[in-house]
Amino acid sequence: MSATAFRPAPSGTAGPGRFARPLLGAFLLAAAVDLAGLLAGLDTVHLIAKPLLMPLLAAYAAVRGGPRLLIAALLFGWGGDVFLLADNDLAFLLGMGSFAVGHVCYLTLFGRGRAPAALATGIAYVLVLAVFLVLIWSDLPAELRVPVAGYSLLLTAMAWRAGVRGRYAAAGGALFLLSDALIATGIAEWPRLPAPDFWVMLTYIAAQLLLTLGVLTAGARGGAVGAGAYRGRGIST
User: Fold this and answer.
1) I need a labelling partner for 8 at 20 to 30 A (CA). Which of 57, 91, 124, 177 fits?
2) Which residues contact 72 (CB under 8 A, 6 or more apart)?
3) pLDDT, tens digit, for every residue of 37-49?
4) Cα(136)–Cα(89) distance, rounded to whole angstroms?
């Protein structure tokens, strides 16, 4: 990643932008603590650290001037995180619903981009989704099959559309899809990697961070282009 992806407001700038670097640092620290707790099997650490992640990332996006839909998507992700801490079917459905609203926020945000999403990428995503659902369908609990299929379709659409915001967001969308696929294979009781919760959280944390950076850097580039256009017309900004 380029350094500009992490760059907060210029040093000495008044206003909330000066909190960008501390908030990003706090998010990365909470992520490291959470992942270390999962590797060490410390459930209490995970219960404390996980709910801190998305509020810190949303605060970072807010002080960087991120759009409201991005902040809403992250906060609905926080809702999903909290619900999924409870190990029961109702909490799972509520968590999935909260994440689904977050994906709608992302889709709406990405739909405002002028660049078209790559058709070939969309076809590839559809094929992967279809194969995955066919393979996992019979192993899912009957009451979760339709909700999982609907959620997976929404998530896949989000991952595809994320590409209009550049390579960071595209990678974030793909990792989000991978993270939730790992959750689904756990529900289906497929063979899993060692420390499965670690890999779920690692891919999820990276996904949300990359989506955030993708939106913020795309916005910064757009602002720079707009300013250059005004200067080119002899209008000072």
Assistant:
1) 177
2) 102, 105
3) 999 999 999 999 9
4) 18
Select the more confidently predicted residue: 6 or 30.
30
Q: Write out the two tokens for 104.
A: 């709608």
Q: In this structure, what DSSP letter does residue 10 have? A: P
pLDDT score of 12 more than 60: no
149-193 pLDDT per residue, tens: 999 999 999 999 999 999 999 999 999 999 999 999 999 999 999
Distance from C-alpha of 168 to C-alpha of 165, rounded to nearest angstrom: 8
The DSSP letter of residue 64 is T
pTM of the model: 0.85
Closest CA to 14 of 56, 66, 63, 60: 63
- The DSSP output letter for 189 is T
Closest CA to 36 of 201, 206, 203, 207: 201
Amino acid identity of residue 9, one-letter, is A
